[in-house]
Amino acid sequence: MRHLPAPSPLGSTSPSPLRSTTPNASLDMYEIDSIDGSRVSESFGRSEEEARFSQMGSVPVSLNSDSVDHVSSMHTSRKSKFVFNSRNISAPSYNQTTSTTLRQCEALLNNPTFEALLCLVIFLNAVVFALEAQNKGMAYGHIGFGGDLPDLFWSNGDSIFYVLEMIFGCVFTVEVVLRLMVRQHLFFCGAWNWLDLVIVLVWILGQAFEERLPVNSQVLRLARLIRLFRLLRLVRRIQQFDSLYLMSTAIRSSSGILGWTAALLFLIQMLFALVFNQLLYGFYFSDSVSTDEFVKDQQEIVYTYFGTFSRSLLTMFEITLANWPPVCRVLTENVSEWFMIFFLVHKVTMGFAVIGVINGVLMQETFKVASYDDTIMMRTKQKAMQNHIRKMQLLFEEADTSEDGRIDLQEFQEIVADNELKAWLGAMELDIQDVGEAWDLLQDNAKDKSGGLTAEQLVLGVAKLQGTAKSLDLQKVIKEQQGMMRKVEKLQKGFRILAEQCVPPSPPGASRINSETEEFVSF
To answer: Of 59, 75, 352, 476, whose CA is between 20 and 30 Å from 87?
Structure first.
């Protein structure tokens, strides 16, 4: 039998998915794989099926008449092996079986459905943690506050939570093992893989040596909640989560701007904190300790807010970002009413002006950086195209009064004559002034210009006519104009040469005619 080499996709030199598992048999057993790991159905001719195989990186096997006689049975299934059985087929080797298993595991791990189910398991694990914390809180509250016994609401709660924890732990362990088997050394190149591995190892150690661990096992279990951030990876693949992906991308993009903002605020607040600390210390705490109980109470209150640099710094952030009147009242009632002026000025400048400017710059720069994200740009373009197709479909259904699947010139004129529809088209940046000219431009995409416009041709035509001219359109016009100028110059040069060869020497007195001829030739 002739073995047909199958070119790998994208010009790679990797082995073809078409392989022989029994080279010494009278009729080889072939397995033809598709990209998603499933087996394809039979195809023996050079037909459209072969084109489908070629796109997947494999070519159907061509069998001659002698080989077909040896075929005893053939099983074809989309999700099962595509096998040619003969009388002398041997079993596949161990390495081939392992390779097939690894490919199936890789297809499973790369499947978005599997990723979604795993994220659902992670979310359910977090819900179980919350319910367990609720159960323990009710038990602790019953001890000190005389509430109802938790067993009245959570019968056998500890046993149920333990079983659920074991199930979740086993699922996460199996996932990490599968990724290790498939990715091998590449597994350690990803930060998420390291996190998953550490969490699984900590869980295994916690189950094996729970009493000997120096750290509370409950704290280690809470580390598994960090896996909730894996939901953000799933957001990139699902278009329904575009808003959530935009927010997560914007937050991630704002890290640099947020750092500079925090540094600026910290410097300003540190300056005010030092001033208040030194001012109040010299004004209020430098004297000897007073024996008056009222004065001592006042000093304790002021010390609570401004006694040390750390307390003073926290107070300054509090009056800037939180509730400022209580601190203002402490100083005005216990120290001096002149502090009221500072707090009012500070609130107007720092609380309104500076914080407002910081918020505006932060939002502007964050969304500017997020708008450069490739995924966001592609999804925005896809949404715009889907919206355009939907609107053009509505326009086509409204215009196709004959219901023949095409729009002719008369139907198009009726649509444009409707003021409401004309205004709707104008809102879509398609301002039609000349109906005949617009119809000719729309028909440029149609092969049969006498048969009207189909829905697809209407979508493409309107998309080209919408909006103002783009840079690409202007460059095309400039290029075509330059080409026409070169052709005109060549034509002008040819006319000049032809005129010089054909025009006889002019007699005396014909200067006026020669000048007119030269002017025409130069033109």
So the answer is: 59
Q: Give tens-digit pLDDT for 400-420.
A: 887 787 877 788 788 778 777
Cα–Cα dist 130/134, whole Å: 6
Residue 126: closest CA among 83, 89, 172:
172
CA–CA gap between residue 296 and residue 298 (Å, rounded)? 5
Smallest Cα–Cα separation from 347: which of 315, 376, 320, 371?
Answer: 320
Structure tokens of 293? 């109980």
Query: Which residue bears the tokens 């350690």?
Result: 188
DSSP assignment of 201-238: HHHHHHHHSTTT-SS-HHHHHHGGGGGGGGHHHHHTT-
Q: Which class for 470: exposed (0-12), middle (13-18), buried (19 or more C-beta within 10 A)?
A: exposed
Taking alpha carbons only, the member of 302, 317, 211 closest to residue 268 is 317
pLDDT single digits (tens) 2-29: 444 444 444 444 444 334 344 333 333 3
Tell me how far CA of residue 483 lies from CA of 478, 479, 490, in angstroms: 9, 6, 11
Q: CA-CA distances (angstroms) from residue 221 to 119, 123, 214?
A: 17, 14, 14
DSSP 348: I
Amino acid at 159: S
Length of the chain: 523
Higher pLDDT, 428 or 10: 428
Answering whether pTM is above 0.90, one says no
CB 18 within 8 A of CB 58: yes
**What's the rounded Cα separation, in Å, for the pair 250 and 372?**
10
Phi, psi of 301 (to 5 degrees): -65, -45
Q: How far is CA 426 from the centre of its chain?
A: 32
Pair 432, 425: CB distance under 8 Å: yes
Q: Are strands 19-20 and 30-31 parallel, antiparallel or unpaired?
A: antiparallel
The alpha carbon of 457 is separated from its chain's Cα centroid by a whole number of angstroms, namely 31
> If we measure between CA atoms, which residue out of 326, 313, 319, 314 comes closest to residue 346?
319
Distance CA 127, CA 63 (A): 58
What local confidence, expressed as pLDDT, does residue 452 receive? 75
Collapsing DSSP to helix, strand or coil, 196 comes out as: helix
H-type helices in 225-336, by residue range?
231-235, 242-253, 255-280, 293-306, 309-321, 325-334
Whether 336 has a pLDDT exceeding 80, the answer reads yes
Mean pLDDT of 349-364: 86
For residues 461 and 444, the answer to whether their CB atoms sit within 8 Å is yes
Q: Using the predicted structure, report yes or no on whether residue 395 has a pLDDT greater than 70.
A: yes
Q: What is the pLDDT of residue 181?
A: 85
Q: Is the pLDDT of residue 493 over 70?
A: yes
Q: Report the amino acid identity of residue 297.
A: D
Distances (CA, A) of 11 to 6, 51, 73, 480: 11, 16, 35, 36
